[in-house]
Amino acid sequence: MSTKKSKSQAMKTLEDIIGGPLKIGDLLRSIRLADELSLAEFSKKLGITISHLCDIEKGRKTVSPQRAARFAKILGRSREQFVRLALQQMIHDAGLKMRVVIEPLAHGA
Asked: Alpha-carbon distance 44 to 51, whole Å?
């Protein structure tokens, strides 16, 4: 099975578990719980307040693409995935029926 296919299967599984499209807050919460970190520990790692992290996890606050990329770097995760989820939530919150696809630019482009 290709990496791309296994990633989409992982996304589908997560979406089945949470009962809808995966949002950046869901992803952050999943990572925090998998790493067995408290809200306080994880928010400190990300450089944000506990209340801000809680609001992101609950979907009350959005994350900018720039902040999503920074979170990905801090956590050693896919920048493209984090940015895609941040943008997708913005599109969803605007009531648009569109899906975001992210591709990194080739070097020198």
From this structure: 11
pTM of the model: 0.81
Long-range contact set of residues 41-49: C-beta below 8 Å, sequence gap at least 24? 45/74, 45/75, 46/71, 46/74, 46/75, 47/74
Please report which helix (H) or strand (E) contains residue 41, including its range. Answer: helix 39-46
The CATH code for residues 23-109 is 1.10.260.40
pLDDT in tens, 66-85: 999 999 999 999 999 999 99
CA angle 39, 43, 45 (to 5 degrees): 120
What would the pLDDT profile of 4-47 be if each residue is shown by its tens digit?
Answer: 545 567 767 767 776 667 899 999 999 999 999 999 999 999 99
